[in-house]
Amino acid sequence: MAVQRTKGVDSARRALQILLQFNQNKPELTVDEILETHDISLPSAYRYLSLLREMYLIEERGKGSYVLSPEILQLAQAAERTLDYRVEAQPVLDQLRDATGETALYLRQLNDAAVCLAISEPDRTISISFQPGHVMPLHAGAAAKTLLAGFAKARRAQYLDRVEPPLSAEARERLSADLDRLRETGFAVSEGEVDEGVWACAAPVRVRSHLVGAISVVAPAYRVDDDKREAIGAAVRAAAVELETVLAKAR
């Protein structure tokens, strides 16, 4: 992901990387699992774990096994309060899901990344990378590119300079042309850019000309023919306008 590394904070970065290794699917970690993921020695692993324990961020459940502490709940609650327009977006996403029969998402930009804030899934869900709280690069996928297209050209160039692995000159030129078209049309389409076999479309959400996010629908490519893609595209555009209306009234 295109994030500039801060110099002189390697130890702090490593401790935070260990903390971020905990997730919904992996709520408990062992020292062996930490060593497998991070290129560090056993004494270093225990040193980082001791720091996280000192800050009351993790607890030792058993010998060599660690879990997040209740202190993390305060961070989660603070983060939830900053999820811009998540509450307002949810009913719009639910209506969009019902209208299309597919998964609807609301995303916004977070520094050099796209973060999913809200999702509405039908009964026949699909596996996608974008899930609430997950951050993804801005240069792949309909919704993410919608956000990147909102960057001024100088800022966009700076972002693309930092992308890892670097884009080839041809890929960068193709992406830049795609972003220019997207900025003009206000509508993006992608297929297989984030998840293989997944088609997506997206439209920007603006409040007083300020880009605040993007609404998107994702679906298995095999399930949406040309007619359905056109219908979904129209529904996504309408949902974006509806959310803009809701947010304008709320401000």
UniProtKB/TrEMBL annotation:
<dbReference type="InterPro" id="IPR005471">
    <property type="entry name" value="Tscrpt_reg_IclR_N"/>
</dbReference>
<dbReference type="InterPro" id="IPR029016">
    <property type="entry name" value="GAF-like_dom_sf"/>
</dbReference>
<keyword id="KW-0238">DNA-binding</keyword>
<keyword id="KW-0805">Transcription regulation</keyword>
<dbReference type="InterPro" id="IPR050707">
    <property type="entry name" value="HTH_MetabolicPath_Reg"/>
</dbReference>
<feature type="domain" description="HTH iclR-type">
    <location>
        <begin position="9"/>
        <end position="70"/>
    </location>
</feature>
<keyword id="KW-0804">Transcription</keyword>
<dbReference type="InterPro" id="IPR036390">
    <property type="entry name" value="WH_DNA-bd_sf"/>
</dbReference>
<dbReference type="InterPro" id="IPR014757">
    <property type="entry name" value="Tscrpt_reg_IclR_C"/>
</dbReference>
<dbReference type="Pfam" id="PF01614">
    <property type="entry name" value="IclR_C"/>
</dbReference>
<protein>
    <submittedName>
        <fullName>IclR family transcriptional regulator</fullName>
    </submittedName>
</protein>
<feature type="domain" description="IclR-ED">
    <location>
        <begin position="71"/>
        <end position="249"/>
    </location>
</feature>
<dbReference type="InterPro" id="IPR036388">
    <property type="entry name" value="WH-like_DNA-bd_sf"/>
</dbReference>
<dbReference type="Pfam" id="PF09339">
    <property type="entry name" value="HTH_IclR"/>
</dbReference>
